[in-house]
Amino acid sequence: MRHYEMGEAIVTTSITADIQLSAFAGRRWWQLAFGIVAMVMVANLQLGWTPFVDPIDQKYHWGRYFIQWAFTIFVLVQTWLVPLHGYLIDRFGPRVVISIAGVLVATAWVLNSYADSLFLLYVAAVVGGLGVGAVYGGAIGNVLKWFPDRRGLASGLTASGYGAGAALTVLPIQSMIQTQGYETAFFWFGLVQGLVVLMVAQLLRAPELGEVSMLVTPGVRQSRRDYALPQVIKSPPFWVMYAMFTLVGVGGLMAQAQLGPMAKDFQVSNVPVAILWLTLPALTFALALDRVMNGLTRPIFGWISDMIGRENTMFIAFLLEALAVCGLLTFAHDPLLFVILSGLVFFAWGEIYALFPAMCADLYGRKFATANYGLLYTAKGMAAFAIPLANLLPAGPGSWKIVFMIAAALDVMAALLALVALKPLAKRLMASER
């Protein structure tokens, strides 16, 4: 009888655990949704900046060069301080830090609406960079902890919110700038975006111990330990990932910057291109398609990596980008192929913002996932530093050819590193934990 009661107790405990995990599974999807909303709300601070530049210059005549320094300052602050944001979020939780970020996001654009000097414009850029960096790092880090079994998909969906967010408000912002002035657009959009971030932050939280199932798909290896930043810095796989992130980032950013000159040299910029029911000039179509593909690729390749492994997916994606770049070099004289192949280039590039956070959490655990990925994310800033090197290339028509050849070579290098360096080093790290 005692044996029967013990078996009954085990079964009851198992059923109770299954019910709890089922309830937790619902909660984590809400956490994913909250993170995406926060990312959408801060996307404009980077991707919605362009429409404001000319109106500011028309009012104060500071010159586009000096006005654009505000954007550069924003990107540098947003990128390089993510490790600090990650540390604070891992220590105090996403609710506290992202609540403060919501206030900073609103303050930045309200300051922009009143900025009557370049100094104040630059201060607003610093404030905005602090806020957006905290939201970006916090939202990605939180889903890495909630989704150990689907980290690629979850981080991809969250990262796509940052790219897609600006698309939702392009027309409303442009309309308000034209009808009521850029100051009004800065003020009201800043307040609304910051307020939504502040509200969503109250709903964000990290999972508690035992709240997340540790079951993973067979194609993904995961660490049994939680590595803090000092340990991660000494780990060889991390620096291989950092190099790969930088290589692919440099290639994609350089290709993006040279797309216009390439279209001009091939005289396809203003040639109408019709795809499905939409007809646009080739360069306009390419730029619009690139943004869409850059967003779609993140959850798609993230999901694939959950199935077949991160390193295998990186190899496929980076090699695909190299081939797409070579194809663009070969067939860019055809307006339709110029649009399609440019879209393929950015489809195979944007997935870095899904694959690398997932891989980082797989290798170094979930407890310090936000800070660890924050450090890895600075590779984006490192890649941005390399972009001005393109200006050192010989001037004149066709100089973009060298840029695209360099981009393809960097992509191939990153693809090979995924299999010949990162994969064996990751296996060795996992084996050392046994």
How would you describe this protein?
The chain has a two-stranded antiparallel ribbon with strand order 1-2. The chain contains 17 helices and 2 strands. The protein has helices spanning 2-42, 44-47, 50-60, 64-80, 82-92, 94-114, 118-146, 151-180, 182-201, 229-233, 236-265, 282-308, 310-331, 335-347, 352-364, 369-386, 399-431, and strands at residues 272-275, 278-281. With 434 residues, it is an all-alpha fold.
Summarize the structure.
The chain is mostly helical. Helices cover 79% and strands 2% of the residues.
Number of extended strands: 2
| H/E series | HHHHHHHHHHHEEHHHHHH
Low-confidence stretches: 1-22
Indicate the proportion of strand residues.
under 5%
Oligomer: single chain
Strand sequence of the main sheet, in spatial order?
A: 1-2
Cα distance, first to last residue? 40 Å
| Total of DSSP H or I helical runs spanning 4+ residues | 17
Mean pLDDT: 85
Helix content: over 70%
Instruction: Specify the overall morphology.
Output: globular
The biggest sheet, with number of strands, parallel, antiparallel or mixed sense and barrel status, is: 2 strands, antiparallel
Structural class by helix and strand composition: mainly alpha
Using only C-alpha atoms, the radius of gyration works out to 23 Å
What keyword list fits this structure?
434 residues, mainly alpha
Blueprint (SSEs and pairs):
Elements: H1 2-42, H2 44-47, H3 50-60, H4 64-80, H5 82-92, H6 94-114, H7 118-146, H8 151-180, H9 182-201, H10 229-233, H11 236-265, E1 272-275, E2 278-281, H12 282-308, H13 310-331, H14 335-347, H15 352-364, H16 369-386, H17 399-431
Antiparallel strand pairs: 1-2
Helix pairs in contact: 1-7, 1-8, 1-9, 4-7, 4-16, 5-6, 5-7, 5-16, 6-7, 6-9, 7-8, 7-16, 8-9, 8-12, 8-15, 11-14, 11-15, 11-16, 11-17, 12-13, 12-14, 12-15, 13-14, 13-15, 13-17, 15-16
